[in-house]
Amino acid sequence: MTFHESLDAAVRRNQSWLCVGLDPDPNRMPDHLPTDAEGVYAFCAAIMDATADLVCAFKPNVAFFEALGAAGWSTLERLVRLRPGPPIILDAKRSDIGATAEAYARAVFTTLGADAVTLNPYLGGDALEPFLRHADRGCFILCKTSNPGSRDLQDARLADGRPLYLAVAEMARDCWNTRGNAGLVVGATHPAALAEIRRACPDMLILAPGVGAQGGDLEATVRAAAAGAEPQVIVNVSRAVLYAERGVNFAAAARTAARQWRDAINAALRAA
Amino acid sequence: MTFHESLDAAVRRNQSWLCVGLDPDPNRMPDHLPTDAEGVYAFCAAIMDATADLVCAFKPNVAFFEALGAAGWSTLERLVRLRPGPPIILDAKRSDIGATAEAYARAVFTTLGADAVTLNPYLGGDALEPFLRHADRGCFILCKTSNPGSRDLQDARLADGRPLYLAVAEMARDCWNTRGNAGLVVGATHPAALAEIRRACPDMLILAPGVGAQGGDLEATVRAAAAGAEPQVIVNVSRAVLYAERGVNFAAAARTAARQWRDAINAALRAA
């Protein structure tokens, strides 16, 4: 199954555009779990098991696994291999040149076996191509990120009047999405930019992190990003689901939180 | 020792501004070595041992280790722990937001113990800050990369007439280098951009990849980037040293190649 088929199947089966981000911070995990790689595995596997019928995707962020060294990388491999149903979008924000980008693409798609990845566009199209070439996998290109500092480069005004993030969206649409497997990452903290990007790219899949702990406005996000009958906007929530409760019932609490987020997204989609 | 002290010591001891990039491609390693993580370790350790008195730094590229999965990550940890003398610049091109950037900084500086790292500026200053905060470590921010696709975003002309890469250089100088530990990555394939960036940032350390296999012009690079008595330009060569010979004498051949590159850089510095 391609990433898009696997995503579509999860969307239909679970009636969900919610993606749960797996950002396991040992200091915030339940106290009864060890703070090492085994504890991180137990934590993430329990969250995945408890929410697999409520989400359209899972998004593990590589940073939290790399912080644990080689053992963390093994944990990530084991989690991806669980294949809980919804596709795995590896939040890696990678990009590099030539043979190096090929090595990263191999690491992400072959060694780890992720269904999709997030990519950083600063190095240009030839740095994205080794990932995009895997036509059965998804590639989400950072466009306008959810953090305040996104203004430093992404809002820079070009000579033709466009902000840089819009130029990136249009390059993605016109040059990089030749196989239909490119999407965009646009933070839910910037609904006006999201609307502008959606107008420029009416058909592209958008991954929108930033609701929940980061304070993005869910209704405004969905209104700005939904693209008609097929919303094509994946709403990511990480901490508000993962850390819904710190006790032994953390997985049940995460399930309750995920169900509430899924339903809230669906309500916002109906109202959009 | 801080990164800068360790770099200075290696520059003086070895009379060298050459950095050897460790991009171990199992398909290009000597035939007598296994193509797995153990072979990669043996290959890189031999290269480091053969050239440690000829270089100012080593630059392992994470991609080639991640492509080998958890075993590759262990290999990288072991190589960094060898502490051969010259500092280790981890070519990771990372950046992410908030707690995630902190996790990456922990992975790079604490778990792996690298002396310096390369970073991608697209997400802005707050994504770089968790790395820069480690004042004893070096942070090389991608400015103008050596690949052809660097024109896509980095050459974009801003409303004020500057190309984006120059705006990045000036932000690095004015906003991000508050602790003196930020440098810039500028490809040796763009000597004119390099000269422009050096004029804007007369004191910043520049890491210049792209001579050797990528065809950058060494003399033009050194002329453009050298900053007076203290050149402050690290010239990286990867494949032209690593794969100087494929037989059992690969390490001796790498040593000969490294010596030639070091001497050529020094000759170019004297002529600059």
Assembly type: homodimer
Strand order of the largest sheet of chain A: 2-1-8-7-6-5-4-3
Number of domains of chain A: 1
User: What would you call the shape of chain A?
Assistant: globular
The helix/strand class of chain A is alpha/beta
CATH superfamily of chain A: Aldolase class I
CATH fold descriptor of chain A:
TIM Barrel
What descriptive keywords fit this protein?
homodimer, 272 residues, alpha/beta, TIM Barrel, eight-stranded parallel sheet, 12 helices, 8 strands, 14% strand
List the helices and strands and how they pair.
The structure is a homodimer of 272-residue chains.
Chain A: H1 3-14, E1 18-22, H2 37-51, E2 57-60, H3 62-66, H4 70-81, E3 89-94, H5 98-111, E4 116-119, H6 125-132, E5 138-144, H7 151-154, H8 164-176, E6 182-186, H9 191-200, E7 206-208, H10 218-225, E8 233-237, H11 239-242, H12 250-271
Parallel strand pairs in A: 1-2, 1-8, 3-4, 4-5, 5-6, 6-7, 7-8
